[in-house]
Predict the structure.
Amino acid sequence: MFGDLRRSRCVAYTAAFIGLITLGGWISVPFVPVPFTLQTFFVLLAAAVMKRDAVIPVTLYVALGALGLPVFHNGIAGFGVLLGPTGGYLLGFIPAALLAGLAYESGVAELRIAGLACAAVLILLCGMAWLMVSTGMAPAAAFILGMAVFLPGEAVKVGAVYLVGRQLP
């Protein structure tokens, strides 16, 4: 890595975003069936900063949590978390980071906003689908409880990430 600035930045950003996504799991508003946290804000921010490489810290975050490090919401950990009702959201972080990161490689503002919005919806869709599988919830109930209630908050997060991302080089 010595002398390779791009790789050094990637390693530093990876460590920083694993920490920020973990911190985002501690900043939450209790809600049923899953809490409203800032994890998705930091996943999307990683995409704005790291572009397609954002998939690296997000994948490592999920892997570290599955291996038992207390990085998930409120310090929970273990593979069982991925099998529970929030597992779909956590796994959805990975393709969402890639999607938003690819959109952020474009210099077009509309494409970046669309990429962030689609990534946020992708996380919710993964969460909603896994909520139906893991709990046996009906599709309409899973849509309301696992997706619709989170859309306004996700819209705010998308807007905030875009505004912060505009300030980045």
